[in-house]
Structures are given as C-alpha cells and as structure tokens.
Amino acid sequence: SFSFSSSSGVSSGGKGGAGGGAGDPFFPDWLPKPKLRRKLKKSCELDVPTQQVYEVVSDVKSYEQFVPYCVKSKILHKRSSLQFDAELQIGFRLFIESHVSRV
C-alpha cells in the first residue's frame, strides 16, 4: 500500500492588500472583509505498487493529459535522481493558479 499526502495554500490581501481601507468603495469599514486565504489537504491510501504510483506522479509532462483543468506542468528543479520540484498550473476561465510540489 502507498500513502500520499498533498497540500496547497493560497493567500491574498492583508494590510494594504485587496480592499478594506478607508474610502474603499468595494469594502467599506462596516462590511466584513472577504476571506481570501484557503488551505487544502488531501490524503489517501492506494492499493497499488509504490513504483507504479511513482511513475505516474513523476511523469509531470503528462499531467495536462489527465489532470482536470491543468493548463501547464513542468519540472522546475531536479534535486537528485529521485527528487524534484514541479509546478502545476490549474486554469478555469480567466483564473489560473500555480502550485509547486516536491516529488
């Protein structure tokens, strides 16, 4: 059995960030500020050989063929023969988010 865990976080805003200051027409001081920070975490156990899972995960260039809404995937930096950092860009309409993972 193989155990896999992934997490990502996106944040925006904060002091001097998106809206909420004095005279802001979109988020006046009396209106609650939108929460633009989110954290996602996914864990699962797979009943497949570890080598087979690694082959799928490490084939970053093929992600665009089977990962929904993936618009771009690339290896950023090889750390060793078995470890690298990869970037995955997910896009839907006008929005694109990038996520970097160490594999």
Name a few traits of the molecule.
103 residues; mainly beta; three-stranded antiparallel beta sheet; two-stranded antiparallel ribbon; 5 strands; elongated
Show the helix and strand layout:
Blueprint: E1 2-10, E2 38-46, H1 50-58, H2 63-66, E3 70-78, E4 84-92, E5 95-102
Kindly describe this structure:
- It is a single chain.
- By secondary structure, the protein is mainly beta.
- The chain has helices spanning 50-58, 63-66; strands at residues 2-10, 38-46, 70-78, 84-92, 95-102.
- The protein has a three-stranded antiparallel sheet. Strands 1-2 form a two-stranded antiparallel ribbon.
- Mean pLDDT is 75; it is low at 9-20.
Q: What can be said about this structure in brief?
A:
With 103 residues, this protein is mostly beta strands. 13% of the residues lie in helices and 43% in strands.
Mean pLDDT: 75
Helical residue percent band: 10-25%
Cα-to-Cα separation, first versus last residue: 18 Å
How much strand content do the residues show? 35-45%
